[in-house]
Automatic annotation (TrEMBL):
Alphabetical keyword list: Calcium, Metal-binding, Periplasm, Signal, Sugar transport, Transport
Chain spans, region Disordered: 23-59
One GO MF term: metal ion binding
Signal peptide, first to last residue: 1-19
Subcellular location: Cell envelope
Chain intervals with Basic and acidic residues compositional bias: 38-58
Subunit comment: The ABC transporter complex is composed of one ATP-binding protein (MglA), two transmembrane proteins (MglC) and a solute-binding protein (MglB).
InterPro entries referenced in this protein's UniProt entry, alphabetically: Bact_Solute-Bind_Prot2, MglB-like_PBP1, Peripla_BP_I, SBP_2_dom
Name assigned to this protein: D-galactose/methyl-galactoside binding periplasmic protein MglB
Domain of life: Bacteria
Domain Periplasmic binding protein: 67-342
GO cellular component: outer membrane-bounded periplasmic space
């Protein structure tokens, strides 16, 4: 699986290299999780448990399953790739003569009240399963209780609810990735450099941390584990700035521009909790006349196409693939399992993969 991803990633790198660093965004490439795909087909094949709410068409014998998806906000680079793949996968790869997945995707607009209403509407409209990328993970228990009352399974994606919340009902699961792994990989990318990130040779790595949305465990773990990977290896570190950028490119740029003005050459490493913010940081670094790889290092997470191209051209030191294809496929498969009344695990995780030149 990992080898397959790495191979595919090289292909992605090649195509994006042609597009150039920061070039036009391309359609996501299918990094395909074959195990997941196979499971999906198996599930389709044994999809014989008729749910109360699924619609049968007596004329064709085919069944329609209504899938309601709510995304915390459409205006997020990573979640855009994720939702497009999720929708495509249900419609183009999982729908067949026997079952049609009717998919509705709505924009939570970064507003939990709005998103809770959307989920209520899915429930009122008798959707068969709900896939939720919550605005606030802390609303998971409310959402689970609403879905439980209506007996509609709910699969959380990307923003992990607490274990306690997941235990509230057996038709609930979380599909995501272990953010500790991505943080550790960011730290390792820096450690693996010949100077371990200590560009000025003063015996410590002085860094700026650009944080996502701090309510989100992805932000918490990446912040903690990127630095821990260095300190675990005996590297001394110094935090110059740590500030929330809410996963946002413009905010990433502002934070890093201000940090560069304040600390100048003292900054050796910029850690960004995601690639959107790393793209912003790259612009700030360039405007300040600094050069990644020569007098500063920069790492992100996600492996957006633009960032992979920047890694290839040396404008970003490294990133970590947050496998939106693998996660989208797993989420779809788990949703189908839930519709079919199969027992669910609480957590389904997809591995991250380190991306360097
Ligand atoms: C991704 C970010 C994204 C966030 C949204 C994270 O896992 O790395 O790019 O903005 O999820 O919740």
């Amino acid at each position: 699986m990992k080898k397959f991803l790495v191979l595919l990633l090289s292909l992605v790198m090649l195509t994006t290299l042609l597009a150039g660093c920061g070039g036009k965004k391309e359609k996501p490439t299918d990094s395909g999780n074959t195990t997941t795909d196979d499971t999906a087909k198996d599930n389709d094949a044994k999809d014989d448990t008729k749910d109360d709410t699924t619609k049968d068409d007596p004329a064709t014998g085919s069944k329609t399953v209504k899938v309601g998806i709510t995304i915390y906000k459409f205006d997020d680079n990573f979640m855009t790739l994720y939702r497009e793949e999720l929708e495509r996968y249900f419609k183009e790869e999982l729908s067949n003569d026997e079952v049609t997945y009717e998919v509705t995707v709505v924009d939570g607009k970064n507003d939990q009240a709005e998103q809770t209403n959307q989920i209520q509407t899915f429930i009122a409209d008798k959707y068969d399963v709900i896939i939720a990328n919550l605005v606030q993970s802390s609303s998971a228990s409310t959402v689970i209780n609403m879905c439980k009352d209506a007996n509609i399974p709910v699969i959380f994606i990307n923003r992990e609810p607490t274990a306690e919340d997941l235990d509230l009902w057996d038709k609930v699961a979380y599909v995501g990735a272990d953010a500790r792994q991505s943080g550790t990989m960011q730290g390792e990318i820096i450690y693996d450099l010949k100077d371990h990130g200590d560009l000025n040779g003063d015996g410590k790595v002085s860094y700026v941390m650009v944080i996502g949305d701090p309510e989100n465990v992805d932000a918490q773990y990446r912040t903690e584990f990127s630095v821990k990977a260095l300190t675990d290896k005996g590297i001394e570190v110094e935090e110059l700035v740590a500030q929330r950028g809410d996963w946002d490119q413009a905010k990433g740029q502002e934070i890093v521009a201000a940090a560069l003005t304040q600390y100048g050459d003292a900054i050796e490493v910029v850690f960004c909790n995601n690639d959107a913010m790393a793209l912003g940081a790259r612009q700030a670094i360039e405007s300040a006349g600094r050069k990644v790889g020569e007098d500063i290092y920069l790492v992100g997470v996600d492996a957006l196409d633009e960032v992979v191209a920047c890694v290839q051209s040396g404008e970003i030191t490294g990133t970590v693939l947050n496998d939106h294809n693998g996660q989208a496929h797993t989420a779809a498969v788990v949703a189908i399992k839930a519709v079919n009344g199969e027992a669910l695990d609480k957590n389904y995780t997809v591995d991250y993969v380190k991306v360097t030149k």
